[in-house]
């Protein structure tokens, strides 16, 4: 008895499912995460904190020094753009 397209009898459906599982190609993705920039930023932040804390006076000076240590790349880019005249 011919089987209509899209219709499979119960026993045949299990066989087709098993075959489909074995025939599917397996794709293995290799993901390489290189987080070396974070370590460099952290060392820069520690150095900036030491620099800014040396010049800080009082509690507010300490708070501002720590905030400056977090955003030191913004100061660097600002100065570099100022030197280039942009």
In short:
Helix content is 69%, strand content 0%.
SSE topology string = HHHH
Helix content: 55-70%
**What structural class do the secondary elements suggest?**
mainly alpha
State the low-pLDDT regions, or none.
none
Profile the largest sheet.
none
Q: What is the mean predicted local confidence, pLDDT?
A: 77
Radius of gyration of CA atoms, rounded to a whole number: 31 Å
Helix count equals 4
Beta strand % = under 5%
Shape: elongated
Could you give the count of β-strands? Answer: 0
Distance between the first and last residues' Cα: 80 Å
How many domain units? 1
Output the keywords.
single chain; 86 residues; mainly alpha; 69% helix
Task: Explain how this protein is built.
- It is built from 4 helices and no strands.
- 1% of the residues are buried.
- Helices cover 69% and strands 0% of the residues.
- It is mostly helical.
- Helix 2 runs antiparallel to helix 3.
- The longest helix is centred in the middle third of the chain and has 19 residues, at 36-54.
- It has one domain (10-84).
Map the helices and strands.
Elements: H1 10-23, H2 36-54, H3 58-70, H4 72-84
Helix pairs in contact: 2-3
């Amino acid at each position: 008895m011919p089987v209509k397209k899209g219709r499979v009898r119960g026993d045949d459906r299990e066989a087709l499912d098993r075959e489909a599982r074995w025939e599917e190609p397996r794709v293995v993705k290799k993901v390489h995460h290189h987080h070396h920039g974070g370590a460099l930023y952290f060392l820069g932040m520690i150095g900036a904190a030491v620099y800014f804390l040396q010049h800080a006076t009082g509690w507010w000076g300490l708070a501002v020094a720590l905030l400056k240590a977090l955003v030191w790349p913004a100061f660097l880019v600002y100065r570099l753009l100022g030197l280039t005249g942009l």
